[in-house]
Write the structure tokens for this entry.
Amino acid sequence: MMFRKIMAMLMAMGLAAGLAGCNTFAGAGKDIQRGGEVVEEAARDVQQKM
């Protein structure tokens, strides 16, 4: 019985860590995408001034 409780606790902790990791990667992806958009806007501005 103790083994089942320990395994259930470890599985729940692993699931929680996995879900937190997904949110972190999604947030980082959005940040990187926004950075790319800023670079594109700057490049367009430079092109228009030429």
